[in-house]
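Risk register update: the risk of archive-format incompatibility is retired. Evidence:
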Amino acid sequence: MRSQGDALRLCIFGDSHIACLRHALKGRTQAALAAEVEFWGTVGRRFRMIRLQDGALVPDDELTARRFAIVNVRGRRLLHPADFDAILFMGARTRVNMLFADFLHRARHPGLFLSSGVKREIIRAHLADQRAYGFARAFAAQNRARIFFAPVSFPTEGLSTEFLDRHPEAALGTAEQRAAIWSLFREVMAEDGITLLPQAERTVTQGCFTRAAYATRRAAERGDSTHKNGAYGRLVLGSLGRALAPLRGTGEQAA
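Archived output:
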């Protein structure tokens, strides 16, 4: 058991989206977290080759186990919530931008109105279909570690027009409307014992896109509208640090 004053044991789990956090932790942010940080994840199709077994995430085969272990400073071949005080699911193939596009577009058209209750059910059904979210929910149910979830960020402006063909007026969505949608996500996740880390409002533009300043290097050249840079990662870690405050017994408030 962790003694008071000891650094928190934090694991960051995810796919290629953990890269922005690894870049961010090259600076002073790690000290600000007051945590011993480990990563556990991999990229490509191997990320899907894991399963829940005896309360832990276990790779399906030896090669996949080695891929996950090489990312981890301790060479862990499985992930068990009992080994940590907190686990952040970062990206982890869990996208929400399609719901934002739909809800923001509907907000411009009274005839397309959906009640908050209906939106909650849509969000709940969407999350239930996300494999990684199922893992997070199972971890939270064990009540061993605090579980945090940062969904995949919105696509980068200028590199994608995803969903705007069906929901063109989503681009006119406001900060207030986004906050209301995030609030619904937060409520649904809280019912599962999971704490949402929403995308920082300062990074958002055109309704449900991410500002180009947070794109990875040469993103336009590679056509990469999905991944984000260390500056984006620092904002996620800042939000996480505030959310971890209760575990450290500090008075700092979560975002």
